[in-house]
């Protein structure tokens, strides 16, 4: 079946009593046992729930994995998967990963004895050089947030495999519609389903998708033991959102390409970061490993924070808000918003300046989005 068909049908058709066309929400916290020897597959919602299971089957199929656990947030998915590691283990990650992931690694799991090293992952050689005897994992996030640097997933997986370490990829920015890390050899995929998978800015959630039986069992154990799973209502919302993932992603990236091209020609814009632009340094790599260029873009304005504030005050269609991946366009200032959890030196090292703005392009008509920016930049 084609991807779009799987989005609509996988994990659905669960209601044998009424044959409902959509998956029912089962809010029940507990399920009756038939007798002392067995139940019908679910006994307690922290451990498993039919609505959540439908979402998990769907996401596992879309990424090409064997199993999935749907969690309460993207961060709880990331925190959960880190429990595959132990004190003394060493994990290599990109220097420009999502600020909340950086904070979790640097300020929480480091205290628990796991060591992290942040490298410029654009060059796989930097990852090879950072390998140590106790390295257990390479953490991949591509495209990176907010500067849209692309990591060569295949090259990093080759480094990992030669060293016998696993790779985990955060596929939030593109969704499985545009990028499937398992196809390059990644071992585990995580998502913030808050973003494109749900797509309507009305739920927070996450997912851990595995392709190996041992990882699947351990992740399932950890998610239950720590109580990380999402509620049946939230699972239902994400499952509903996923049905339109393909058409939404197409509309999102159409707007992003138009906006990036417009911004790229503006005298008041110093730099545009969007892999769909032919002058993006990794345009060819993005074209090779992604099905499209996605709908996140960033740009540096001329004139620092005062210029940033002027543009923000004039835009009407772009809401000043964090997050991304919803149908409505959002704009945010990484320095004080999405990446405030990083220290200023870490932000500057990652290339985020006081003039950087990040845009999550929604599914509005591209002409309206460009017109809004035109009046904001010219005014
Ligand atoms: C790439 C990426 N991963 C993970 C997360 C965390 O997800 P959540 O906010 O759902 O916990 C985010 C949030 O913005 C993100 O952008």
Description:
This protein has 379 residues and is α/β, with parallel strands linked by helices. It has two domains: 3-242, Aspartate Aminotransferase, domain 2; 246-378, Aspartate Aminotransferase, domain 1 (Alpha-Beta Complex), CATH 3.90.1150. Helix content is 38%, strand content 15%. The strands form two sheets. It has a seven-stranded mixed beta sheet, with helices on both faces. It has a five-stranded mixed beta sheet with strand order 8-9-12-11-10. α7 links the parallel β5 and β6 (188-192). The termini are far apart. The mean pLDDT is 96. Pyridoxal-5'-phosphate (PLP) is lined by residues 73-75, 98, 100-101, 141, 145, 170, 172-173, 192, 194, 204, 206. The site of pyridoxal-5'-phosphate (PLP) has 15 residues, from α3 and α4.
Give the CA-based shape. globular
Q: Strand order of the main beta sheet, please?
A: 1-7-6-5-4-2-3
- What's the tally of helices? 14
The average pLDDT value, as a whole number, equals 96
CATH hierarchy: architecture of the largest domain: 3-Layer(aba) Sandwich
The CATH topology of the largest domain is what? Aspartate Aminotransferase, domain 2
Total domain modules: 2
Order of helices and strands: HHEHEHEHEHEHEEHHHEHEHEEHEH
Helix amount, in percent?
Answer: 25-40%
State the secondary-structure class.
alpha/beta
